[in-house]
Amino acid sequence: MLDTQLTSSLSYKLYRADEVRGNEQDAASKSGCEMFTLMERAGEAVFRQCQHLLPNTEVYLVLVGQGNNAGDGYVAACNARQAGKRVIVCAVEPERKLEGDAGRAQQNWLDTGGSIEAFDEEKLSSAGLVIDALLGTGINTYIRNEFAHIIDKVNEADVPVVSIDVPSGLDANSGQSMGRCIQADVTVTLVGIKPGLTTGAGKQSCGQLVFEDLGISKAFSAIAKPFASWLDIEQFKGMGPRDIHSHKGTYGRLLCIGGNKGTAGAIRLASEAALRAGAGMVRAYVHDKSIIQVSAGRPELMVTSEALEDALQWATCVVIGPGLGQDDWAQHAFEVAMKHCQSEQKPMVIDADALNLLSRQATAFTISSCILTPHAGEAARLLGVSVDDVETERFNYAKQCAERYHATCVLKGAGTIIDNESSVAVCRHGNPAMATAGSGDVLSGILGALLAQGLDTELASRYGVTLHARAGDDLAARDGQRGMLASDLFSAVRALMNQ
């Protein structure tokens, strides 16, 4: 059996920045510490990560702003100086006295004999490592020019960067760059993991993401409301052993519809992926010009170009879209399949060209158990917005897609988002090796296979996305990121499901 209980650990939950800010003081108090103690712990944690990243670096450049993020930076600077490092602290306004805990940290730095200087490129070029404490999670408008200038110079320089909480200039909730954004090598995020660090451009900007709960996790998790789950393969136990008296019909009858003339490969990948992910029987309905290409070398697949209505009656669930095309043949197959699955309430996975056909419908079909798997371009067409809109606000548009079609939306990309109207999850696995033709078709087949085996749409979508992405990680770790084929994922997925 698959374990549907996700761990309550903070490392598997995502919290909006305002939720962290609104609850960290109460959590600190309940944990018996002051907010300045959290600042000290944050600065110490940042310095530890700097030591881990580059233990022999002797010159640190610490860039500070004007809020609590700057206070964390001053504490990190003190820790580095105590460890014998040469530390240069630069601020946008070097003469400005900070207030509150940040002011206390600033004064401690000055009391140790430290100075605060204006930023210039000579200081940057002399540094072996940059600590980014310019801007924290509170920004909600485009950043000022003086910050943008520093960020540009840091990004142009070949110097490793460790960001505190979020890379400066990044919206912690959406992952959107607020005009400019630090491209960090490591981001040490504090108290709660922010969703903007886990998907799209935000995932790229933060580099390696390190989480530090600062010793208040128990109290914080008791009072703060998570925004989303962060999915890891370790949260799932796998499918477990099969019953001795089971047979192929026990594990579902999946129909994969697609494979127009000239695009047979996509439906072949989806269909074979479904077999490898445990579906009992898989039938492919394809254009008559594609039968040989789809069936060749895989006799376990049943392939047909006739009697779509009969094939739909046979099936317990359907995948539609890989290689479907958008011509008259595709339109007919799409309409027949959608009407059947709507009337019979059969689970569906809608991918690729089927999403493009769906976007043209004046009234959306409503199917009780439906998974949509758009990339940003397909999501943009489904919602009538631009691709840039989707990539800038991935969480927002995944939610809109789920709500418009009353379906589970799997918004693919770096940090794939799964939204089913009532809950949100983000996959922490995946890597650029998976940006290869056919990878999405394999995902559709995996999702269809899990539905065929009786998983509900929430569990099938979360487990299927996680399986697919972790399989890609395993292959990239073994063979490297270049040259991965979508079909390489079959064996890795099968191995993960049987662990």
From TrEMBL:
Its EC number is 4.2.1.136, 5.1.99.6. The keyword Metal-binding applies. InterPro entries: Carbohydrate_kinase_pred_CS, CARKD, Nnr, Ribokinase-like, YjeF_N_dom, YjeF_N_dom_sf. (6S)-NADPHX binds at G136, T137, G138, I139, N140, T141, Y142, D165, A266, G323, H375, D441. CDD domains: YXKO-related. AMP binds at K412, G413, A414, G415, T416, G440. It catalyses: (6R)-NADHX = (6S)-NADHX; (6S)-NADPHX + ADP = AMP + phosphate + NADPH + H(+); (6S)-NADHX + ADP = AMP + phosphate + NADH + H(+); (6R)-NADPHX = (6S)-NADPHX. Keywords: ATP-binding, Isomerase, Lyase, Metal-binding, Multifunctional enzyme, NAD, NADP, Nucleotide-binding, Potassium. Residues 231-499 form the YjeF C-terminal domain. Homotetramer. Bifunctional enzyme that catalyzes the epimerization of the S- and R-forms of NAD(P)HX and the dehydration of the S-form of NAD(P)HX at the expense of ADP, which is converted to AMP. This allows the repair of both epimers of NAD(P)HX, a damaged form of NAD(P)H that is a result of enzymatic or heat-dependent hydration. This is Bifunctional NAD(P)H-hydrate repair enzyme. The gene is nnrD.
